[in-house]
Amino acid sequence: MFFKLVSRNSKRSRRENGLFHASLLVVVIAFYVILALPKQDVIIFLKEMESDAIQKIFQMVPILFGASLCILFFLVYFAGRYQMERRKHEFGVYRMMGMSRSRLFFMLMTEDIKSSLLILVAGIPVAVCISELVSLITAKVEGLGILGHQSTFSFAAVIGTAVGFILVKLFACLFLSGAVVKDEIGNLMNPQAKEQGKTRPKVLYVLAFATGCVLLFVAFYDGIRGHIWDDLLILARTVVFGIAGVFLVFYGFRLILEQLGRWGSRHERLGMFTFRQLEEMFIRKSSVPAVSCILILAALCLFGAGIGIARSYTVQSERVVDYTFDDDNEDVSTTIEKLQKSGLRSDFEKLIQIKTGYIESSIENLDKEGKPSKKKNRVVGFNADELVDKLKKDGKTPNENVFAMEIEREDTPHIIALSGYNELLKQAGEKPLALKDHQAAVYLGSALYSDEFKEIMSKALQGNIYVTMDGKTWSLGEKVMNKEIVADRAITLGFALIVPDKAYEQMTAGKGTTYLDGVLKPSKTEKQGLIRVYQEMNQKLDKVGISYDCFLQSLGRRMFYGVCASYITIYLAVIFLIIGNTVISVQFLTNQQKIGRRYQTLIRLGATSNALCRSARKQINWYFGIPVFLGAAGSIPAMASLFSLFVETGEGTQKVLLLSASGMILLLLIVELIYILEVKKLSDRYLLYLMVPEREE
Q1: Share of the chain residues as helix, strand and coil, in percent rounded to the nearest 5
Q2: How does residue 217 score in pLDDT terms, banded at 50, 70 and 90?
Q3: How deeply is 336 buried, as exposed, middle or buried, from its count of CB atoms within 10 A (0-12, 13-18, 19+)?
Q4: What is the rounded CA–CA span in Å between residue 634 and residue 40?
Q5: What is Dmax (Cα atoms) for the chain?
Q6: For the purposes of burial, counting CB atoms within 10 Å of the CB of 696, is it exposed (0-12), middle (13-18) or buried (19 or more)?
Q7: Residues 156, 162, 164, 169: what is their CA dihedral angle, to the nearest 10 degrees?
Q8: Where does the pLDDT of residue 404 fall: very low under 50, low under 70, confident under 90, or very high at 90 and above?
Q9: 494 Cβ partners below 8 Å, 6+ apart?
Q10: Which helix (H) or strand (E) holds 55?
Q11: Who's near 28: CB < 8 A, 6+ residues apart?
């Protein structure tokens, strides 16, 4: 009989508190996914490429998990108080019917353990599937493919999730159940007196609201400018002003609700009652919606930033060549010969020679006696005044002026031979360059210059622009080139000029550097997968003793920043979002139960169920809408600041990132709508329960 009672109570609790149990289910999924990171395909790959950095990430995971458990404890405890308050009369009836304190305590603990186990049983399989899906999607997006995929199931993650979750639930239930069983029967049977909030002078609320608005304006302005990371004092001011502003605005918001109540009383029967209840909630517990607003803001900006950061590192680093062979002790022909002898030449579809160097100046010629000869030296110099003037004249942003000064400081830029670069363009599927005598093309390395600088240079090159190089006048083409000339971004060029081969040989005097780029056969990478081919080829090249740089290195660095940053930020966003919404949901439902007598009075005065439900729904819209609106508004400058810290982007790329992040914010706002609808459903159920006439004892 006892266990039937436990089963019935547990089932009823899940039905009546579906929102809370669904939130815990999402928490279990998030816990497993973060603990199962070592099993992710991308992380397994990064262990080889960025082992030290990955170890630091793994050291952070237990800290994040421990902090999440602490936050979960307060969430479970706070939500559990609402459930215990709602069931106090039931517990009093059990005690009156002879149930001992120990029996009641055992019943509550058994109910909690059963609900925890059911959440784990339902959550772990879903978490495993989601972790597997995330691993496959990440591998696909990052270009790893699904070949060689390993299962993401982690027994250690299951144990860690289960133990952590059950311990948190048990500790919270111990505190809550202990408080219930210690209470006297009279206190359990009689409804608890409602907390009374202290009303302050109106001038205090006016000052609080006005001061909060000013502080939020300063914080938003600092965030939009994007300079908060330049100075620790500015960062501290922005954070402190933002948090203080939110609390002050919510503290003084009762004045607006009071005015809305007066306006609503003239347009709706229960308009005054609706806003009076909201006003009272803000007087008694203004800190609850304020904390919820801050958590929602943090969740929105972290989620948006995580998606934006992941997207930025995914779209960079176009793969054109796979390997770059550069050995200072050997020439290109020797490297090609080694590849042929070892049988590795057949694995490459194409070998491209890229020549780059500086303009060589002739040193002062000396005669046999060591005295200067009468032979004149070759005049070497680079003058781009016309281009610099055009950049400064058209410059409308600080970036354009900085770019102009960088070009102005160039004494002798890098030059690139045309033939090799055209081979790269063909490999990338683009049209080769056609340069005439004394005509050059501008090259901007994508690793150092963003798309914004490329657009700036393209605008400046419109028309006939000339530079002086090696004592001769050169015209610049209008198209800016930015294909990386090597496989790994560890070898980079910033500003350079592409010139015809004959001019290149003359200006470098045969002293330039030649890189040998290798492109693997597509059939090989399609059969075995890109990563496996790279790993096998690296082992073969190491045995042969050929010095190389691989696109895998660039890919590993990009994936580390993109994947790890996005995983952590999205994980924290999920935790903050769940906590923020659950706290405000439980607070509203708890307050509604405490004022149940008011609803019963309205029922006796003739209020219909539709009128009561409509009033409660408006309260929910306002109580949720204010924190969500303020949090969403604050997330825009917050995300812009995070982008400026983590992502080196130009204005155009910033817009793309903000758009993708805004899409995720829209998705999260849909989650907010789901919470609101569920709270409305629970509120309607409670009000309809109150409509049933009480039996006179």
Answers
A1: 70, 10, 25
A2: confident
A3: middle
A4: 34
A5: 127
A6: exposed
A7: 180
A8: low
A9: 406, 444, 445, 448, 449
A10: helix 51-86
A11: 119, 120, 123, 124, 127, 161, 165
Task: For residues 623 and 628, give the distance between their C-alpha atoms in angstroms, rounded to a whole number.
Answer: 9
Q: How many CB atoms within 10 Å of residue 693? A: 9
| Residue matched to tokens 């159940």 | 177
Residue 144 CB: number of other CB atoms within 10 A? 23
Please check whether residue 589 is in contact with residue 82, taking contact to mean a CB–CB distance below 8 angstroms.
yes
- Token readout for 193 is 């007196």
3-state secondary structure of 128: helix
pLDDT per residue as tens digits for the range 450-499: 666 777 787 777 778 888 877 788 888 878 887 878 776 556 677 888 88
Nearest residue to 157 via CA among 189, 184, 199, 125? 125
CB crowding 185-196: b at 16 or more within 10 Å, else e: eeebeeeeeeee
Residue 597: its H or E element: helix 596-604
Looking at residue 24, its pLDDT comes to: 83
What mean pLDDT value characterizes the chain?
75
- Burial label for 340, CB within 10 Å (0-12, 13-18, 19+), is exposed
Q: Which of 22, 648, 1, 602 is nearest to 276 (CA)?
A: 602
Two tokens, residue 634? 């604050």
Cα distance between residue 256 and residue 211, in whole Å: 15
Question: Six-digit token pair at 385?
Answer: 């005044």
Contacts of residue 40, Cβ cutoff 8 Å, sequence gap at least 6 = 131, 134, 135, 138, 152
Please determine, for residue 554, whether its predicted confidence score (pLDDT) is greater than 70: no
Minimal CA–CA distance to 161: which of 110, 123, 129, 109?
123
**What is the DSSP secondary structure assignment for residue 146, as one 8-state letter?**
S
Comparing C-alpha atoms, which of 496, 432, 448, 444 is closest to residue 469?
Answer: 496
**DSSP annotation string for 620-683:** HHHHHHHHHHHHHHHHHHHHHHHHHHH----HHHHHHHHHHHHHHHHHHHHHHHHHHHHHHHHH
3-state secondary structure (DSSP) of residue 517: strand
Q: CA 265, CA 263: separation in Å to the nearest integer?
A: 6
Exposed e or buried b for every residue in 553-585, given b needs 16+ CB within 10 A? bbbbbbbbbbbbbbbbbbbbbbbbbbbbbbbbb
What's the angle, vertex CA 544, arms to CA 538 and CA 548, rounded to 5? 50
d(CA 479, CA 501): 19
Contacts of 670 (CB under 8 A, 6+ apart): none
Q: What is the pTM of this model?
A: 0.66
Query: DSSP label at 372?
Result: B
Whether 209 and 253 have beta carbons less than 8 Å apart is answered as yes
Q: Measured between alpha carbons, how far is 133 from 140 in angstroms, rounded to an integer? A: 11
Q: Per the structure block, which two tokens stand in for 9?
A: 């109570």
| Three-class SS state of 383 | strand
- Counted residue by residue, the chain has a size of 697
Residue position matching structure tokens 């772990």 = 124
The 3-state secondary structure of 407-472, one letter per residue: HHCCCCCEEEEHHHHHHHHHHCCCCCCCCCCCEEEEEECCCCCCHHHHHHHHHHCCCCEEEEECCE
Question: In the block, which residue shows the tokens 């400046």?
Answer: 460
Question: Which residue is it, tokens 């602490």?
Answer: 70
